[in-house]
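Query form — protein Yip1 domain-containing protein

QUESTION: What is the three-dimensional structure of this chain?
INPUT:
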Amino acid sequence: MKKIVIILIGVFTLLLVNVQLSAVNVNQTSAPYETYTTGPNGRRITTQTAYEPAGIVSLGLGLSSPEDLYIKDDVIYIADTGNKRIVKLDLNGNFEVLISSLNQPTGIHVDEFNQIYVADKGNQMVYKYDQTGLLLDSFGRPTEPIFGQNSPYVPTKIVTGPRGIMYVAGEGSTSGLIQLNYAGDFLGFFGTNETTKTWYQQLAEWFSLDLAKTVPTSPLNLAIDEKGSVFTTTLATSSQVKKFNIASNVVLTLSNQSQPVAITINAFNNIYTLSDEGIITEYDAYGNLIFEFGGLDQGNRVLGLFVNPTDIDIDSQNNLYVLDKATNQIQMLQRAEFTMMVHQGLEDFNNGIYSIEQWEEVLRMNSMFALANSAIARARFRNLEYNEALDYYRIAADRQGYSDSFWQIRYEWMQNYLGIVLILLISLFVLLKALKFIDKKYHIYDPLRSYRKRLLEVRLIRELSLIFKMFRHPVDTFYEIKRNNKASYLSSTILFGLFIAINVTSVYQTAFVFNYTNLEAYSLIREVAILASLIVLFVFSNYLISTLSSGEGFFKDIYRGTAYSLAPYIILTLPVIILSHGLTLNEVFIYSALNQIKFYWSLGLIILMMKEIHNYNLKALLKNIFLTLFVMVMIVVIVFLVYLLANQLYEYVVGIIREVIVRASS
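ANSWER: The structure tokens for Yip1 domain-containing protein are given below.
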């Protein structure tokens, strides 16, 4: 009897409470979405559910098209836009209508002194209230001339920073966030989005044509961390999330596949974004993806999915609260145990505690979790264990961290061995000079000269050695290839084979810091086929065009000349690969410059080959180059169309055969 009374009292209490946490689908036993994270090589992989749907916060009075919420000290402040009010709600279910004299409140923020700032889009005002709802101040359109007469002032979102500075996102504010001081004086625009010009606009500008100017996109939403760094979200195709320091310089950009409409930052600087497609994405302070999950509800009222999500925030336990404008509800998503472990590791690291054991436990739960490897690497790096950090950075595909660790290893090596290396190099130089001097008197190199002479008597070796002459006398080399037959199909084919082999070697052997190839998806056969097809396509196209445009070169001349034109690429690639293992990202310009030199040098030799082999003047050469490229493109298009037609024919024939078999069996 006592138990029954207790149950009845509990039910009666629930009925009286105006605010409840209740699940829409009581039969739902798991999250209705997959959770993704970053795996090895930067691939997106599934992982354990990070946040479980825990319930829906529903108000007895009813929200109407709410636009914004803010959580401070586990108290939720809601901009109830449709009802023109601000509602205050704690996690125990106690609520009150704090402010009700508004027009269209779309943004809310609570500062360190618990003063409430409201962006009222309808009144085009920013208001400041105390915790009793008493109006303390209001901030209308700035009157400073620097603000501009035509600049719109339609506040939609607001945050406050140190010294009471307000950052206001305004509708149509293409110059950036509106920055006001504590008294409402205009300080300037903050966090302006950059504009990018298309090639057409750049060309029009070069010809001084008057086109419509590219206007920056206005920030959509914003957040601020404890250090005063401001984060903005923008409707764009890339870099939708930006982090600005106090000087309004971009220090971090994040790109989402979907458009983020809201953003918040937790105590240890994790970044949470909410997209218009209901996707919640969590990053660490460095911009590394931790978790991604969520989605839109298709009318089934599934807990954990959303209809029109407008804002997101977190409580002191890092549980998520998502505001849904369409359902007029706030969904709560509770951290899973796995997420708690990840957060504890991040929080420890943020506090200077390098808990390797914590992250190793995460790896035991999910060995593919890249962030754990990256965190262990950072901890090893802080502990000066650079070799161990190197391995973990590689697993996490963190090239910057790998580069920093390698720089330290290289620095220590140079401190220990640079003197010895210099002595050896000087000794080698002196030895070679001495041997050269001795050779002049006693001809000690004569056996080597005789051996070299015998080698050059072998025709194939003599033909292959011609490649080195390309570096000194390319015009003479092309003349010898064309007039004196100093090259053959065999030697040229070997050079083409070396060209393909050196490209494949580059893919597999280039240092990790500069190697962005996903070896798991890399197909050796496909790579060889593409390179071989490209060679054949160019040689055939150039021969076809030169035949029609009075070129003097035969097919064999073009084939051989092209092979020997690749000399810089073939000879320089291997040293570049070796050098890449001694460089860091600080010296990336050296690696890039060497790659560009070998590429453009070979390209220049190919163009020179076309001129010398066909005996063209400049006009004829340019015409030949253009037509060769055009024919190459047309051949690719024709082959592709033939492939499509052949594939359709194949499917048609297979379909007929299957139907005949079915009819025969019936």
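ADDITIONAL NOTE: The radius of gyration is 34 Å.
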